[in-house]
Structure formats: C-alpha cells, structure tokens
Amino acid sequence: MQFNLKRELPLIVIILLPYLYLGFIWGDLPQTVLTHWNGAGEIDGWSNKSTLLFLPLLTSVLTYVLFLIIPYIDPKGQLKKMGSKYHSLKMFIVVLMTAITLYILYSTKQESLSNPNTLYFLIGLLFAVLGNYFKTIKHNYFIGIRTPWTLESETVWKKTHQLGGKLFLISGVVLILTSLLFSPQLNSTLVLVVTTVLVLTTVGYSYILFKQEQ
C-alpha cells in the first residue's frame, strides 16, 4: 500500500474544508465564542475564538493522518491487505469527521446548536457503516474491536467482528431513526446506552469465545 497522491488528493481537500470555512467566517466571529453544548443542545462552554483553529486539527486532520500512517506501522501487515476496502473506510470516516466539524463551526457562528439531533444522526450513520465494514477488517492492533482476547486469537477476532458488525449496523439504524423521531435529551441518553451495551456485549463475547477456544 503506497502513498498515491492522485487518490489521496480528494481527501486532502476535504480535510481542509473546515479551515476554508473558518477563514471565511473568522472576521464575523466575536473574540469569545461558544465551544460546548450539553446533550440537550444548551450552551455550557465558551472560549477564545483562537481555540477553533485546533478543532479541525483534532478531528478530520488527525483522523486522516492516523489512517494514513497505521498501515505502515501495523506489525502484522494485515491492513495493507485490505486494499481498496481500507481506503473506502478511511474516506467515509474522514468525510464524516469533516461533516461533524463543519456543523460545529456553523453552530458556533450561529451561536446556537440549531438541531442537536443532527449530531446523533451522524453518530448513528457512523455505527451503521462501521458495522458494515467490521467483517472485512483484518486481524490488527489498531482498528476494530480490540480486546485482549481478539488480539490473541484470529478466530476470536473474526467471530467477534461478525457479531459486532451486526450489532453496530442494527444500533446505527436505530439511532438514525430515533434522531428523526425523539427529542435531543432522549437521544443523548440513547447514544450512551447503546454505546455501553455494544462495548459490554462485544468485550464479553470475545472473552467467552477465547475461554471456549482454550
């Protein structure tokens, strides 16, 4: 898997979009801007507008750089074997993180999180797509359901990701639907509950499979 500038150029343009938008609105922003909301979309944090410069860096840019580097430092070399599937996963995650970043910057400019359910919709979309990709992710140390037992056994890894893929896909669809139907307060709770259930279920399942294998 070699660096291909022609293939990577669209992603590089995408991760720069938040900075282009930030440059466009910079002169209209007050010196102190809102930077945090609670689950209900209520403002509960303010900062100097210069902190906004770090937001794209810590979201879309960092995501892209990590996805770019880890195939080369993966000791097993499994991620390189994914080929185009790895690139498509990287593209989706980077596009999603960029969309979230742009939405936050837009909300900061408007001084209001107009529809918090938009974020919960994007989280549901993330879960659904990850679930669809889990069965294709090779046994590695960086991406996927990484527990001591999945990392120890390739069989446990495969079976855990088969179950995890189904659960993440179903959970993602549920969160997408609830983001369209329920209040932000309820959806913030649902995201926490669904995430907790997913973590406990996949971790517990990998442990049980490992014990059975032993």
Count of spatially separate domains: 2
Main sheet: strands, sense, barrel: 2 strands, antiparallel
Averaging pLDDT over every residue, what do you get?
90
User: What radius of gyration results from the CA coordinates?
Assistant: 19 Å
Distance between the termini: 35 Å
Number of strands: 2
* Physical arrangement of strands within the biggest beta sheet: 1-2
Share of β-strand residues: 5-15%
Q: Rough shape? A: globular
- The number of helical elements comes to 7
Residue ranges: pLDDT <50 for 5 or more in a row? none
Which structural class matches the secondary elements? mainly alpha
**Which series of helices and strands comes N to C?**
HEEHHHHHH
Overall helicity: 55-70%
Describe the 3D structure.
With 214 residues, this protein is mainly alpha-helical. The protein folds into two domains: 1-114, no CATH class; 116-214, no CATH class. Helices cover 70% and strands 6% of the residues. It is built from seven helices and two strands; from the N terminus they run H-E-E-H-H-H-H-H-H. The protein has helices spanning 5-25, 54-73, 84-110, 117-134, 148-152, 154-181, 184-213; strands spanning 32-37, 43-48. The chain has a two-stranded antiparallel ribbon. A hairpin with a 5-residue loop joins strand 1 (32-37) and strand 2. Helix 4 runs parallel beside helix 7. It is globular, with a radius of gyration of 19 Å. The two termini are 35 Å apart. The mean pLDDT is 90.
